Amino acid sequence: MNEFLLILISTVLVNNFVLVQFLGLCPFMGVSNKLETAMGMSLATTFVLTLASVCSYLVYRYLLLPFDITWLRTISFILVIAVVVQFTEMVVHKTSPLLHKLLGIFLPLITTNCAVLGVALLNIQKQNNFIESIAYGFGAAAGFSMALVLFSALRERIAVADVPVTFRGAAIGMVTAGLMSLAFMGFTGLVRV
Amino acid sequence: MALIHLSSPHVSKANATDRVMRLVLLATLPALLALTFFFGWGSLIQLCLAATSALLFEAVCLRLRKRPILFFLRDGSALVTAILLALAIPPFAPWWVVVIGSFTAIVIAKHLYGGLGNNPFNPAMVAYALLLISFPVEMTQWNAPFVLIGDSWKALASFPESLMIIFSGVNHHLIDAYTGATPLEVLKHRGGMTTEEVWRNVPVLSDGVFAWYGISAAWLMGGVFLIYRKVITWHAPFAMISILFLLSSLFYAGDPSNFADPFVHIGVGATMMCAFFIATDPVSCATSNRGKIVFGIGVGALIYIIRTWGSFPDAAAFAILLMNLAAPFIDHYTQPRSYGHRRANRGIGGGR
Amino acid sequence: MNPELRKITLDGLWHNNPALVQLLGLCPLLAVTGSVVNAIGLGIATTVVLVGSNLTVSLFRHQVPEAVRLPIFVMIIAAFVTAIELLMQALTYELFLILGIFIPLIVTNCAIMGRADAFASRNPVPAAVVDGLMMGIGFSIVLILLGAMREALGAGTLFSNMHLLFGETARSWQITLVENYRGFLFAALPPGAFVGMGLLIALKNLIDAKLKQRIEKSKSTQTDPVASKRVRITG
Amino acid sequence: MTTIVTAVLILLLLALVFGLILGFAAVRFRVEGDPIVEQIDALLPQTQCGQCGYPGCRPYAEAISNGDAINKCPPGGQSTIEALADLLDREVVPLDSEHGEEQPKTVAYIREDECIGCTKCIQACPVDAILGAAKQMHTVIVSECTGCDLCVEPCPVDCIDMLPLPVTPTNWKWPAPVSDPNLILTDRGRGHLLQGGSQ
Amino acid sequence: MTRLYSFHGGVHPPENKRQSLGAPIRQAPLPARLILPLQQHIGKPATPLVAVGDTVLKGQKIAEPSGHVSAAIHAPSSGSITYIGLQPVPHASGLESPCIVIETDGQEQWIERQPLTDYQQLDKQALIRHIRNAGIAGLGGAGFPTDIKLNLGRDHIVNTLIINAAECEPYITADDALMRERPDEILSGIEIIAHLLQPSHILIGIEDNKPNAIKALRDAIRARKLPIDLVVVPTRYPSGGEKQLIQLLTGIEVASGSIPADVGIVCQNVGTAAAIYRAVILGEPLISRIVTLTGFALGHRQNYEVLIGTPFSVLLESAEVDRSRMFRLVMGGPMMGISIEDDRIPVIKTTNCIIAATREEMPPSPPAQPCIRCGMCEQVCPASLLPQQLFWFAKGREFDKARHHNLFDCIECGACAYVCPSNIPLVQHYRFAKSEIRNEEAEQLKAAQARERFEARQARLAREEQEKEQRRKERAEAAAREQARKKAEAEQADAGEQDPEAELKKLKTAASIARTKLKKARDALKNAQEKGLDGTDKLEATVLQLEQSAQAAEQAWQNATGVQH
Amino acid sequence: MQELLNSIRRNTLGISLFAAVTAGLIAITQVLTQDRIAANQEAHQARILYEILPQSLDPNLHLQTLSLPAPELGMHEPIRVFQSIVDNQVQAVILPVTAHDGYSGDIHLLVGIWRDGRVAGVRVVSHRETPGLGDKIEVEKSDWIHSFDDLRWWGEQDQRWNVRKDGGEFDQFTGATITPRAVVRRVADTLAYFEQRKAQLLTPVTRTATSETERGHPNES
Ligand SMILES: Cc1cc2nc3c(=O)[nH]c(=O)nc-3n(C[C@H](O)[C@H](O)[C@H](O)COP(=O)(O)O)c2cc1C
Ligand SMILES: Cc1cc2nc3c(=O)[nH]c(=O)nc-3n(C[C@H](O)[C@H](O)[C@H](O)COP(=O)(O)O)c2cc1C
Ligand SMILES: Cc1cc2nc3c(=O)[nH]c(=O)nc-3n(C[C@H](O)[C@H](O)[C@H](O)COP(=O)(O)O)c2cc1C
Ligand SMILES: Cc1cc2nc3c(=O)[nH]c(=O)nc-3n(C[C@H](O)[C@H](O)[C@H](O)CO)c2cc1C
Ligand code: SF4
Ligand code: SF4
Ligand code: SF4
Ligand code: SF4
Ligand code: FES
């Protein structure tokens, strides 16, 4: 139990995927203009990330390791992820067109969210077991979601602020993300790894 | 005769933002005196430096943004930021530290977002956090209060000496003579001692803690003054201090040898300053009264967590920044119940 | 130059720069730009993959069934990336260690996938290759600028450790800007990366605004009546 | 050599499985129709003026959902662009001046003594806002006229004017407060100016 | 003593009431012209019953309500109608709107009054009709037609009647003076209202800064032994706001979007009660009201009994205004009133106060500083809103969010703007946002309507096309048959003369078209020449050609008409 | 139904085709670069080892390892000690150890010890200390790490093995005492451990390691 708590604290706060590890930045910048969309994206990403974590673990453990072809891990993981995402996308498209449109081009782009492949690769690097992999994937997604949701609420406030023209939009978004990252540095050391 | 379309109301209370800021400035006076009393001329010099550079940067930004300079300089917000920053950094930090700090606070944290009222993060704390991670050496060298190094105020660096330390920085032996760890640092890196042993054996705590208590009391005085003058409300400070007290008491009661006692958490370090002057910064705090309570609780809890398990002995700046970034989100969920509504409009709904 | 290719080039380098405008591929961009050498390394790798994947996708664009379009594209990209990864391990092992997980993560660099899907799968081979090349160069330029900024501010040097990429002779390329620089850690840490990127984007905005002003000025002297694209919808 | 063969086989195996899944899903979860068009159409001003380059608002809505730019509708102006950007999560862009510029709302008035009753304007009006029969003078139903000015051009005797709606206390709007322009310039306002170019 | 509750927020600005209470109510002079806007109330404007040139008697109905929510208008004095049309009216926009202007003859000749002293015996509907005929609209604020509020009996159960005597705004003392001097009128009015609504509980809410009025009312109530609770509430603006007063006196909140009657409460102003008394017992319609004239630019600051329609200028003169010192003219109180730039506008039914303020009294507000979210506005908002958030959203044009923050529950009381240290014109921001939202809604409605019509037209066209196709087919067949027949009939005389009338019209049209074409071409040519474009020679040729053909057409028409006549 | 089958067939065929081709390409690259990569990895690992003990002494240093439990050093799993063997006699050993009480996370060290107990050299393999402060333990940043060279440890009472602030002989860095304190303590502990397990440590192993099975990093545990 303690172990999982540590993994969660570590992935959500200390080594936040977005703000400290730099994974999943494109959706972080792209889908954070509106809190509502951000929440949708968070849910989608949480789902995909956890699932990808599981699938990639299974593929690695039961296909790649036994045949000693671990150097195929990138391509096989990304294939798994792409299929999972595409499948999700088809289902969402059919069942909830609004959600589908809200997430716009980003649902297919979850495939190319670094966080998803990143979590799969880091699971191997950290030699996590099955349960740990799930916890790690979920923690990473939770960290991503938290950062995304807070950031989008913040951006909504900035949207009505009197930001100089040159900085309006992406530039001030980046600066804000930087200050967020600065704030998250406060968590350094909570969990020692 | 009057203009048309002049909207009501046609009268207003004699009240102005600059007056609010002046009151805040006034309220920092006790703490400034206390700091000078215990630590020497350093704080005063830092303050002058910070104020000058902050006003300068503010003027430059206003100029670049083609705003009327005097009109905005008069509102005094840059001065408040400068003073809080100056009083937060070690009194004998080199001059460029405080100048870089003012630059960060005024240019990056404030004017990139559109100036007064628009910044989501507390400028002074952004500057402090940035300085802390960029120049940990300079930012952790607090000098010892005079009660530790001599028996009178004379033991501290004289005014010219202070100037020399801050501006030339060459006088390393001078610095070394004065610097020491702060109580929170000592308690954090206690090297195996129990809390009680630290209190008994380390002079900063056994003899010098009164300096910190005195400074905290001074901040508290200023804070009470601000509440009395209705510049701030009690919500955030009260929530923050009580949650900090609660957490530290609980853990201390559970394991008195490993956790610092509540008096340290409340009375030492930047707690009081943070509670009354920083967590109450209207611009970057949550909006409603309920939101301010949530904000305060968050700051208090984060301060405790980071102080106890994290890497930074005094966590106020990071706690504030973290809650700053959560403030808009808190606002979404703490909207008060308006007249005639059964429930408050919580959550998102701003979309459509 | 052929006007179409010219447009593609300008788009890649400036108007639709993957990093500054599309805000894609941010992860490696921010993560590995602690120094110029990292930036160059990643820039080259990314460009090679971009060109390769654009070429391949464009070649087979008519053969790919719609439902499995994305999986196939990512496989193509992943193949290139793995090949690059293996080659880097073989040739510049130290750099590979520094860039770490971000080499395999080129696969998920949104810019690459984005180009494959949005451009290469709809355009003929030459255009796709030029597009890949220009996007790659545009991306690399931003990488290098950010790397230089952060290295200069953070460590006071430029082009240090170039030997990792260009062999021992490159060791001497290092420029020390300030002797005994104390280091402005902020620039080297994650927050600095974000803020630096923000400043770069703002710089681009500023230049764009200035350019626009100039164009407007020259425009206002001519009077060319705007041709309305109106459609009459009734009799 | 064996490594190569195993690698190919394993990946082939994976691909087969996934191909099956996706092939199945492609049919099972196919989506027909596009409800987003309705939402876009609801945001367009329905002036039906064709300035966007499409014959009416709905065709433009369809075009937008297929990726066309959202800044081609002058009657809707900046506010419609913002609403569309919001709906589709796209960037807000200034109005494309190739399609015209945002103008104050107007309605058509027919100078009745000059009208020759040719019915050309009736045929032109997309919302049937003009009353009259052949060879009789015509009038515009002010409350129905969308101000698209499509009737102006066909009139052979030029008797139709587009006039702004008069402001009365009932339809008067509170203006946004303007502060002393020397003191508070919001960058927001200037941003529009800068981006919007010359207008 | 009933229990007193409290409402959130509120402010206590300097009262400035003493100045206008020095003298008793004075009759205002009869002006030469009375200007009566057709809309002095909430709802639809009234429809005139008179025409220019008519003579009218005092109290004669000159406009009748048009629709359910509307109010009648009566001639406040005898005279003749000289004008019906646009005149400046008291409205925040400063625009003109339709009015009836009466030139008074100084006779003050009353129409025959029809009192209903035995109202208790009457059918309630008849009584209500009588009140409606008297043109009474709330005198306390919005001017809502009173008969509607009194006609609730059927679909609402009213158990509490609240008489609003709070008069919470600074400066205004009209209700205060009324209560001091005519408490009996008020109480009789309340009796009539109570008769109509049959409430179980009657409350009068009055602020504690009017001791004399409290005493007068209390004595009168005691003398009449009426079951009325006189509740003295603390002086705090806006305790007189309907919803706030209800909360103050009963602890009940009126749900957003509904009216007090939904919770069994009706709230009427004391002035309205007095007006009802006059209408019912004396048979006098609402033609005058009490107006406070105050402000330091006036020589006499006191309450006047004023005929509705009296121009402000007349009143100001009568109160000896010093125009050089008058800096701002406000109708209503300083918190909610509207500023006036043209003093020819008339007093209307809701005008309770005119403030001619000097510069020192109401200085121009200093330039707005940025909002620092200090929260002072939030502490005083009686509707428990977040004014600062509303402001940010209004400024950033994020109207959806403003709405989500209950923008439409803002009563525009101005308390927030009063305390704002940054001097932000908050209320105007809200009014702007509300206008924009309403406008947007109207436009959306219009767009939906337009779409419907467009689609209907498309459908019609399609149908017509189909029918045309059908007919064409039939015609083709018919034509084939006809041709066959024609062939059979060998030669025949040509068709008879054409209808000369139609011919003429055709020629006229042709001439007209030719003229227009020519004009267009000339314009184009001129335009082109001005801009110095090339290709003008071609245009010139076209113009020349058109000139000729226009002449020809003109000639033809001329000839034709010549032939005819 | 027909449509479903069609769709499945087409998609499966497409994706498989590409899968086979890409897998083949990668596999070929892998086969071609395999040896070079293995060599690189080996060289990389060995580099630090040979910084402590010159390659001229024993070029097979990185191949001769010995697994030893080291609970005294706070390691849960056995550590892999490298032996430098000259003439069948262990001249020196290199121990991978970890200091846990650094400022922010573990500091992984390699401590080389001559057979007579003198320090041959210390290197930091990886750490997470603050750049500019704690990172002066890296040899690239400062030569503080050389202050261990040739020192010996004289048992528990030896006060020199402390930072100056604690009364020892090692400099602390300005503003950072924790990092050097952690490193000094751990090196001292390692020397103690060496004295205790001298016998085992100095028994030469036969080459157990081959480049194939020893792919891992010395400190990867
Ligand atoms: C648009 C509108 C509709 C109203 N409808 C009714 C109604 O149907 N019945 C009623 O008794 N009062 C109605 N009222 C009257 C209000 O309840 C209230 O008494 C009146 O607006 C005066 O309030 P004020 O001066 O505080 O604004 C309505 C008011 C407004 C503004
Ligand atoms: C902020 C505010 C203050 C008001 N103050 C008073 C007041 O002091 N006295 C009053 O009679 N009406 C006041 N009103 C108007 C009342 O809300 C309400 O319209 C009136 O009492 C209804 O009575 P009537 O229909 O008889 O006018 C105020 C309204 C608002 C919004
Ligand atoms: C951001 C930050 C990073 C720090 N990093 C280190 C570090 O890496 N190593 C270290 O020993 N001390 C570090 N410190 C300093 C410690 O907080 C503490 O001041 C110091 O180690 C105690 O030194 P002293 O005993 O010399 O006062 C850091 C401080 C801060 C604020
Ligand atoms: C009660 C109060 C507290 C404030 N606290 C801070 C503060 O902690 N940091 C700061 O930079 N400015 C502070 N200010 C000043 C002002 O709000 C600040 O300059 C704005 O954040 C800049 O937009 C404070 C002002 C008030 C009235
Ligand atoms: S320009 Fe706008 S209003 Fe006109 S047809 Fe196109 S969408 Fe409709
Ligand atoms: S009357 Fe003219 S302007 Fe109005 S809707 Fe019809 S065609 Fe358009
Ligand atoms: S009182 Fe004024 S400055 Fe303060 S929060 Fe409200 S609007 Fe902003
Ligand atoms: S004007 Fe509106 S927001 Fe302001 S205090 Fe009054 S009710 Fe609240
Ligand atoms: S590059 Fe990481 S999410 Fe796009």
UniProtKB/TrEMBL annotation, chain B:
<protein>
    <recommendedName>
        <fullName>Ion-translocating oxidoreductase complex subunit D</fullName>
        <ecNumber>7.-.-.-</ecNumber>
    </recommendedName>
</protein>
<keyword id="KW-0812">Transmembrane</keyword>
<keyword id="KW-1003">Cell membrane</keyword>
<feature type="transmembrane region" description="Helical">
    <location>
        <begin position="210"/>
        <end position="228"/>
    </location>
</feature>
<keyword id="KW-0813">Transport</keyword>
<dbReference type="InterPro" id="IPR004338">
    <property type="entry name" value="NqrB/RnfD"/>
</dbReference>
<comment type="function">
    <text>Part of a membrane-bound complex that couples electron transfer with translocation of ions across the membrane.</text>
</comment>
<keyword id="KW-1133">Transmembrane helix</keyword>
<feature type="transmembrane region" description="Helical">
    <location>
        <begin position="235"/>
        <end position="253"/>
    </location>
</feature>
<dbReference type="GO" id="GO:0055085">
    <property type="term" value="P:transmembrane transport"/>
</dbReference>
<feature type="transmembrane region" description="Helical">
    <location>
        <begin position="69"/>
        <end position="89"/>
    </location>
</feature>
<feature type="transmembrane region" description="Helical">
    <location>
        <begin position="20"/>
        <end position="38"/>
    </location>
</feature>
From TrEMBL, chain C:
<dbReference type="GO" id="GO:0022900">
    <property type="term" value="P:electron transport chain"/>
</dbReference>
<protein>
    <recommendedName>
        <fullName>Ion-translocating oxidoreductase complex subunit E</fullName>
        <ecNumber>7.-.-.-</ecNumber>
    </recommendedName>
</protein>
<keyword id="KW-0249">Electron transport</keyword>
<keyword id="KW-0813">Transport</keyword>
<dbReference type="InterPro" id="IPR010968">
    <property type="entry name" value="RnfE"/>
</dbReference>
<comment type="similarity">
    <text>Belongs to the NqrDE/RnfAE family.</text>
</comment>
<feature type="transmembrane region" description="Helical">
    <location>
        <begin position="128"/>
        <end position="149"/>
    </location>
</feature>
<feature type="transmembrane region" description="Helical">
    <location>
        <begin position="96"/>
        <end position="116"/>
    </location>
</feature>
<comment type="subunit">
    <text>The complex is composed of six subunits: RnfA, RnfB, RnfC, RnfD, RnfE and RnfG.</text>
</comment>
<feature type="transmembrane region" description="Helical">
    <location>
        <begin position="72"/>
        <end position="90"/>
    </location>
</feature>
<keyword id="KW-0472">Membrane</keyword>
<keyword id="KW-0812">Transmembrane</keyword>
TrEMBL record, chain D:
<feature type="binding site">
    <location>
        <position position="145"/>
    </location>
    <ligand>
        <name>[4Fe-4S] cluster 3</name>
    </ligand>
</feature>
<dbReference type="InterPro" id="IPR016463">
    <property type="entry name" value="RnfB/RsxB_Proteobac"/>
</dbReference>
<protein>
    <recommendedName>
        <fullName>Ion-translocating oxidoreductase complex subunit B</fullName>
        <ecNumber>7.-.-.-</ecNumber>
    </recommendedName>
</protein>
<keyword id="KW-0479">Metal-binding</keyword>
<dbReference type="GO" id="GO:0051539">
    <property type="term" value="F:4 iron, 4 sulfur cluster binding"/>
</dbReference>
<keyword id="KW-0472">Membrane</keyword>
<feature type="domain" description="4Fe-4S">
    <location>
        <begin position="32"/>
        <end position="90"/>
    </location>
</feature>
<keyword id="KW-0004">4Fe-4S</keyword>
<feature type="binding site">
    <location>
        <position position="52"/>
    </location>
    <ligand>
        <name>[4Fe-4S] cluster 1</name>
    </ligand>
</feature>
<dbReference type="GO" id="GO:0005886">
    <property type="term" value="C:plasma membrane"/>
</dbReference>
<feature type="binding site">
    <location>
        <position position="148"/>
    </location>
    <ligand>
        <name>[4Fe-4S] cluster 3</name>
    </ligand>
</feature>
<feature type="binding site">
    <location>
        <position position="121"/>
    </location>
    <ligand>
        <name>[4Fe-4S] cluster 2</name>
    </ligand>
</feature>
UniProtKB/TrEMBL annotation, chain E:
<dbReference type="InterPro" id="IPR011538">
    <property type="entry name" value="Nuo51_FMN-bd"/>
</dbReference>
<feature type="region of interest" description="Disordered">
    <location>
        <begin position="1"/>
        <end position="21"/>
    </location>
</feature>
<dbReference type="GO" id="GO:0022900">
    <property type="term" value="P:electron transport chain"/>
</dbReference>
<feature type="binding site">
    <location>
        <position position="420"/>
    </location>
    <ligand>
        <name>[4Fe-4S] cluster 1</name>
    </ligand>
</feature>
<dbReference type="InterPro" id="IPR026902">
    <property type="entry name" value="RnfC_N"/>
</dbReference>
<dbReference type="GO" id="GO:0005886">
    <property type="term" value="C:plasma membrane"/>
</dbReference>
<keyword id="KW-0004">4Fe-4S</keyword>
<feature type="compositionally biased region" description="Basic and acidic residues">
    <location>
        <begin position="459"/>
        <end position="490"/>
    </location>
</feature>
<protein>
    <recommendedName>
        <fullName>Ion-translocating oxidoreductase complex subunit C</fullName>
        <ecNumber>7.-.-.-</ecNumber>
    </recommendedName>
</protein>
<dbReference type="GO" id="GO:0046872">
    <property type="term" value="F:metal ion binding"/>
</dbReference>
<feature type="binding site">
    <location>
        <position position="410"/>
    </location>
    <ligand>
        <name>[4Fe-4S] cluster 2</name>
    </ligand>
</feature>
<dbReference type="Pfam" id="PF12838">
    <property type="entry name" value="Fer4_7"/>
</dbReference>
